[in-house]
Amino acid sequence: MTRPEIVVADGWTTAPNDSAWDPLRQLGNVRVHERCGPLLVERCRRAQIVLTNKEVLGADVLDQLPELRFVSVLATGTNVVDLRAAAERGIVVSNVPNYGAASVAQHVFALLLQLVNHTSEHHQASRDGSWSRSGHFSYALGPITELDGKTLGIVGLGHIGRRVASIGQALGMFVVGAERQSGVISHPSPDPDAVRRAPLDELFTTSDVISLHCPLTPNTAGLVNRTRLRSMKPTAWLINTGRGGLVDEAALTEALHGGWIAGAGLDVLQTEPPPPHHPLLGAPRCIVTPHVAWATVEARARLLDVSFANVRAFLAGNPQNVVTTASPTKHEHG
């Protein structure tokens, strides 16, 4: 049997160590690229299987890949592939569900605890001699806030949102989930009685912390807009580890400079990487991390294991984690 041609379109972020792709090399002739950019079509033209994280496979690209039969998305979100176009062309697409829930939930609280405890600032004050010069045994650089008793509003109670809810409850927080509306996905909680549901606008006005975990869709784009930011408590924090497009960045910049909210912790932005003078990078009381919430060693290992299993399953004729099945039409390539 002829070994399939397999291309990893942007492998560096997922696995900087090339040997991590060795299990995939057992399944076919593999070419791994750090990223492709404008060379995407050229590098994938003869491939039957493509693995992609952020390289976009739109209809225009798929039209130029006559051999392509399977796409394994190296992520949970599949917005980088035109799923309708893939189905029309007989291309099966799979993803990796729920590999990073624990890691992302952990990062939510890394951001939040930095905002409320100012850990890095206090560490720096110890290192630069500020504490030593102060003459005080306890040297606080700002108010330190206790999370116990605060209300945590979660937009999107899927796998990650439910993890965040559990951690919040362990810290003594009251958890409120947004009701399903306007394309915001809200799944059942492991403990439905412990997570009260509220309309989205009410969640924004009553929560002390708001954490975003819904997918980016036409209905959720710009969900955190000027009106909702204005409605938040001036003591409230916004955390976004979902997608940058969920937030109106101009409105958030205005909110931070205007003191409408206490602060924001962001792991995602609309443009990644951002331009060096992006306004949120220098905004007051705003922490930005470079899209790393998903990227623990353990989560990456799970991601690769499931991705390789997706390829094996497709080659065996039993695709798994399928987000769109092949539905050949006149567009199918011979």
Question: How many distinct domains?
Answer: 2
Give the class-level CATH name of the largest domain: Alpha Beta
Distance between the termini: 19 Å
The overall strand count is 13
CATH topology of the largest domain: Rossmann fold
Structural shape: elongated
How much strand content do the residues show? 15-25%
Q: Please identify the structural class as seen in this structure.
A: alpha/beta
What does this protein look like?
The protein is of the alpha/beta class. The protein folds into two domains: 5-98 and 297-324, Rossmann fold (3-Layer(aba) Sandwich), CATH 3.40.50.720; 101-288, NAD(P)-binding Rossmann-like Domain (Rossmann fold). 31% of the residues lie in helices and 15% in strands. The chain is built from twelve helices and 13 strands. The protein has helices at 22-25, 40-44, 59-62, 83-88, 101-117, 119-127, 130-134, 159-170, 200-206, 226-231, 249-258, 297-315, and strands at residues 5-8, 29-32, 49-52, 70-73, 92-94, 151-155, 174-178, 195-198, 209-212, 237-240, 263-266, 286-288, 322-324. Strands 8-7-6-9-10-11-12 form a seven-stranded parallel beta sheet. The radius of gyration is 22 Å and the shape is elongated. The protein starts with a strand and ends in a 10-residue tail after the last strand. Mean pLDDT is 92; it is low at 182-190 and 328-334.
